[in-house]
Amino acid sequence: METKAQSPGFFTKIGRMNESNLLFTITVVIFVLMYVGAIVFQGGGFLSAQTFFNILNDNAALIIGSLGMSVVMITGGIDISIGGVAALVSMSCAVYLDKAGGNLVVSLLLAIGIGLLFGLVQGFLVAYLDIQPFIVSLAGMFFARGMTTIVNSEPFNVAHEGFMNLKDTHIIVPFLGRTNRKGFYIDAYVEVGVIVAIVLVVLMFILLRWSRLGRNFYAVGGNANSALMLGINVKKTRFLSHVICSVLAGIGGFVYFVHVGSGSPSHATGMEMDAIACSIIGGTMLTGGVGNILGTLFGVLSLGTIKNIVASAGLGEAWWTGITTAGMLCLFLIIQSVVMAVKGRAAAK
Length: 349
Description:
- The structure is a single chain.
- The chain is mainly alpha-helical.
- Helices cover 71% and strands 6% of the residues.
- It is built from 14 helices and four strands.
- The strands form two sheets. It has a two-stranded antiparallel ribbon with strand order 1-4.
- Strand 2 (170-179) and strand 3 (185-191) form a beta hairpin.
- Helix 2 packs across helix 14 (318-348).
- The chain is globular.
- The chain starts with 9 loop residues before the first helix and ends with a helix.
- Mean pLDDT is 89; it is low at 1-8 and 10-16.
């Protein structure tokens, strides 16, 4: 007598999903619920498309820095120098353009070059001299912050004409504008940095999803000894992850510079911590081997949204932002632990 095959239950489906996709799904669902909740309970600005675009405008540099952080974390490492690199890039480009009357293209190459130099040095120390990445990147952070002050110790705004034109360039998003109280239609827009960030998200997604190097990142982070037995050059893979991270930090620093329009030793303070938080919220695990670039993007959006919610609630003080960020990070860590435990049980059945 034939029996009908029972459809897999919810927990069985969870067991069949890989870790990256599962955590990415959780991140997206929580972000959507959080944003919808903000619209329902706070309304006002959250109903405007420009509010969402402003989250992207304000966090384009963080998106780029978080992409690099996610790559390093997927390999089982960490890089806390990206904020210092971004500050050094910002100040160096500001001095070059404003004091020396430099060229925009050369300033971009300068930003990439600074990031590349940090990546080569830190990657070599981590991968080939086997020094702990936290210690190496901590030294890199202090060095970058110190060099930023040496380049110029006083904050100043850049008046370079070509740079100001780039800073004021807005890409109009059609049909999503709004009419203000005086009856004037205001176009919705994103800044140039957002376009750069989205392009890099796509490129990094392709790299990690479909390239051999991307698969090597996951393999090394999952189990370095097993990766070595499969013929993967573990040292080279770790080295390249740090190079990519620092180059992205350099590009992120330039995007940050274009957004703020100034140089200052205090720029990008805390960016490395925010990038780690966004990567974790996006589903990248500190233990390595698990992560999703699209999840990192939603991690940045989630962090930006919660900051907007705090500000809209009249709690704009820095400590409230820190408290809510900490609470959000703990929530995602708990969710990750619970879901992964459930997945493990479901997969064992």
